[in-house]
Design a protein that fits this description.
Elements (H helix, E strand, L loop, with lengths): L1 E9 L1 E5 L2 E5 L5 E4 L3 E14 L5 E8 L6 E8 L6 E4 L2 E14 L3 E9 L2 E12 L15
Parallel strand pairs: 4-11
Antiparallel strand pairs: 1-5, 2-3, 5-9, 6-7, 6-10, 8-9, 10-11
Length: about 140
């Protein structure tokens, strides 16, 4: 048994001393001048039974209307230092601090896939602001 207990977006996150610490957690909107390389984090906890061996965690980011997609994958091992055994379960904390190219305004989707299964969809809206700080409105692209 492997399940994603929770996951969220944050401006920054770290795992230390068996605890997950995040700054600017659970954002749903980013206002930046486009295009922009934007730094953010994905953080969460995976629960598994004690008999589970190594498994992959994949993060997939899709731009508005699926114009582009980027992904990264890592392997979680039972003896991971960020894992804690409690009762008959293992709790594994994870953080991915990353930089993404934000090209277009609109809804960006980040999928967290655990052991080959789509486990969570996180999303945030990117709003383009001009260099002088004004929001530039855009029409949604229905293509």
């Amino acid at each position: 048994m492997i399940e994603l207990d929770y996951a969220y977006l944050a401006e920054y996150a770290v795992v230390a001393d068996g605890k997950l610490t995040a700054v600017g957690a659970s954002f749903v909107q980013v206002e930046v001048p486009l295009p922009m390389h934007h730094r953010f984090a994905v953080a969460g906890r995976i629960r598994s039974s004690l008999d589970v061996g190594p498994y992959e965690v994949e993060f997939v980011l899709r731009s508005p209307n699926g114009k582009y997609e980027t992904s990264t994958t890592g392997t979680v091992h039972p003896d991971d230092p960020h894992s804690t055994v409690y009762g008959d379960r293992r709790s594994t904390l994870f953080v991915l601090n990353t930089i993404a190219a934000l090209i277009d305004p609109g809804l960006y989707e980040l999928f967290v896939n655990v052991a080959g299964k789509e486990s969570r969809r996180l999303a945030f809206e990117v709003v383009n602001i001009s260099q002088d700080g004004f929001v530039e409105l855009h029409e949604p692209d229905d293509k």
